[in-house]
Specification:
Layout lengths: L5 H15 L4 H20 L19
């Protein structure tokens, strides 16, 4: 058992696309990236972790 080869990685990616669909992949990638960054910050001793979702200006209620 070693690192998966190119064919195995392509097969895994194809299965993920079939399960989640193409529209969900960017959201999953962004969430995974945030999780990795938060993990690295916690290892370095920085206690402030950003878990609030970012909102667009259009989402704010208008007066």
């Amino acid at each position: 058992m070693g690192i998966p080869g190119t064919f195995e990685l392509i097969l895994i990616l194809a299965v993920v696309v079939l399960i989640f669909g193409g529209r969900k992949l960017p959201e999953i990638g962004a969430a995974l990236g945030k999780g990795i960054n938060n993990f690295r910050r916690s290892i370095q001793g920085k206690d402030e972790i950003d878990v609030t979702p970012k909102t667009k200006k259009d989402d704010e209620p208008k007066p």
